[in-house]
Hints:
Layout: E1 11-14, H1 16-20, H2 30-42, E2 47-52, H3 65-71, E3 79-84, H4 87-96, E4 100-106, H5 109-116, H6 120-136, E5 140-146, H7 159-171, E6 176-181, H8 188-199, E7 206-210, H9 217-226, E8 231-234, H10 254-263, H11 272-286, H12 294-297, H13 306-310
Parallel strand pairs: 1-2, 1-8, 2-3, 3-4, 4-5, 5-6, 6-7, 7-8
Helix pairs in contact: 2-3, 2-11, 3-4, 7-8, 8-9
This protein binds magnesium ion.
Amino acid sequence: MVDPVPEPVLEVVEVGPRDGLQNESVLLGTDAKVAYIGALVEAGLRRIEATSFVHPGRVPQMADAEAVMARVPRPDGVSYIGLVVNERGLDRALDAGVDEVNVVVVSTETFCRRNQGMSVAESVRSFGVISARAKAAGLRVTATVGASFGCPFEGEVAPETVAGLARQCAESGADEIALADTIGVGVPADVTRLTAAVREVTGLPLRFHFHNTRNTGYANALAAVAAGASALDASAGGIGGCPFAPAATGNIATEDLAYALRRSGVPVDVELDRLLAASALVEAELGAHNPALLGRAGDFPGTLSEERSAG
Ligand code: MG
């Protein structure tokens, strides 16, 4: 008899330490970042975008990328992702010992120029070079198509444009395609449409990156699951944004996403109590209320604490 095929577990990729922290005005020290990442590992998260290897003058929050990677816990099964935008970043990521690289290409010329100082065609060529070198070093490679759902400078982005970039990245060796709603403009119908367009050109695993800028982030995440996503990005506490995208607010929150997925019957390997502890830790460091709501409302079913029922 053939063994039953195991239920695929949706991967939640924790991006708080990278996409979350890089857009916060409070600069966290290395100790705090390492503690935050440690708490995320304790919560059960297994793919963590730990940092970004970009020029420290451009993103000062990530200037200690090497120091963070040198000190993160390394239990079996935990994979650390470093974001890179050029070969210099890849050199640093390889030296720092990341397990995966996330390489960004951007869907429009204006945003691509502002985000990484090159044309779209150059960013695709650069992806190919980075991808080949990273794979030769044994790393998993994700191609993220930034501004897949719309551009802050050029407006609407055609799904065919995004699919074209996804195809080129797939042909250049990507192991996974990530579709990023960098400025949080997408709605579930866009997710369905874009997924269909990308599915025409590649069978690679699809990861999605949503921001909750217009309160559509969670609906988009569930639409992505329905469309066959294998991974979703989220940040504990819902912190973060994008330093080069005007008015992009936080990522969808890992705890709120995990709650919605679990209640929808999608298994997620996360311990909510410990995840809330990780969010509380980073909230205390940032000194401002996180946008995430589960920590305030509580899990369900659960028992109301005396304090809550009295209030
Ligand atoms: Mg982002």
